[in-house]
Amino acid sequence: MQADIAGAFQIARLAARFDWTWSPDDVPRFCDVAEWQFAGPSARAGISTNLEIARPVGFVSIGREVWDDASQIRVLRQISVEATSSDLDLGTGPTHATIDAFALAASLFVSEWGDPARTVPGSSAKLAWDLPCVVIQVEIDKSDLVLSLINPHYEQWIESCSGEAEADWRRYHGDERPSDAVSPSLAGGWTSFADALALTLSRLPEEGQLTLVAGSDHWLRFSFGTNSRYGLLLKCEFPRVRGIDSAEHARTGWAKPDRRNRNWAKRITWPAPFDGYHSLAQDAVAVLRDMFGVDDPTSISVYSRSSSYEEPASLEAFKGN
């Protein structure tokens, strides 16, 4: 995969200073400032950017806004440009390289504008910053990274529709969407299990949970939580187990149970590069194998569920297909 995250960051900085009117005329004006080529909104890829990737294309969304007197006006909704070029099939989810590109973009954008207004973990992870005249969004789209410059009024409408959709879903379906358990069928033993776990964790939705169950007493659970200092955190936890050396947990970096947290826990900040998810997965493997005495990862049951209207994390990575 080719990526130009530094170039995408410069586009976002340019957009933050641009005099947006959100009429369709903004498209050629912004293209002139950014030194892009604009083929027109009727073209399949209306924009050719100068990002250093194989397919430096952009897309324009123009719609109609209805005013109080029933008149309509054409408005620019958003400009989206690809910041990466992947050779993978469009049906493929985010790869290690996509996840790394997303984490790098997040660090650059946070350094410029602080914490994002909206964070959406998952296979279509998203970060958005509400600036005075433009909403800047970085999003994983299948196996690529997309930067969008969005009309603030259009973003508000999208958010209101999303909230209504979730409320409707909860009204009819309740709070949880459990998925079936999977027993890993991987040929590579613990190494393959750690790889599958890391990939699944990188795609875990914010209200999702991933639980690994070994026998009747042993389990590890992964879920998200927020912290006023560190923001969104991905946590792995497991309960106290009699007969297992607690000092060994502490020596390997697990936080001890206390009044606020009943279980042993490790946390990483989100978003993380793929190595961050893989390191957490290897820590979980060490607990399963060395502390719980699990010999074979195929004896573990993996459960995925979500308490939102979004789909739970897919367990396909554990099936060895």
From TrEMBL:
Domain TY-Chap N-terminal residue range list: 189-299
Name of the protein this chain belongs to: TY-Chap N-terminal domain-containing protein
Species: Nocardia tengchongensis
High-level lineage: Bacteria, Bacillati, Actinomycetota, Actinomycetes, Mycobacteriales
